[in-house]
Amino acid sequence: MSNCLFCRIIKRDIPASVVYEDDEVLAFNDINPQAPTHVLVVPKRHISTLNELDGGDDHLVGGLVRRAAAIAAERGIAAGGFRTVFNTNRDAGQTVFHIHLHLLGGRGMAWPPG
Ligand code: 5GP
Ligand code: ZN
User: Fold this and answer.
1) Which helix (H) or strand (E) covers residue 86, if one does?
2) What is 6-75 written as a DSSP string?
3) pLDDT of residue 61
4) pTM exceeds 0.90 for this model
5) Ligand that comes closest to the CA of residue 90
6) How far is Cα 65 from Cα 72, in angstroms, rounded to an integer?
7) Residue 114 has what pLDDT?
8) What residue ranges of the chain have pLDDT lower than 70?
9) pLDDT (0 to 100) of residue 99
10) Which ligand is nearest the CA of 14, by number?
11) Which atom of ligand 1 is found nearest the CA of 87?
């Protein structure tokens, strides 16, 4: 997906502040952070939205969630708490159509979200 922003970050065509990488996952700091910790955890394989997932992706998605929790632990925000969000399509405000798990933390957060 040469026109996908996150695929281009994964290929290192576009720079990002990478915080974790393995064969399946890249995590990097959000360019417009909404909290002291705001990391995007993305699969290296292009998947546009959660609506495109199937059962074969369960391991991959579980890996994103576990990686977000591990990064939260590294940053010392796991016990205090953090928020993880997948935005899907227009009503949720998705702007980049390559799935990404937002990890937000380091401050108190309101519920319900806006
Ligand atoms: P969405 O609204 O799709 O759930 O989240 C997309 C996120 O990607 C936003 O929080 C936005 O700040 C972030 N973002 C957009 N462009 C870039 C970029 O070029 N680099 C990085 N690191 N983050 C980006
Ligand atoms: Zn992509």
Assistant:
1) none
2) HHHHHTTSS---EEEE-SSEEEEE-SS-SSSEEEEEEESS---SGGG--GGGHHHHHHHHHHHHHHHHHT
3) 98
4) yes
5) 1
6) 11
7) 86
8) none
9) 98
10) 1
11) 4
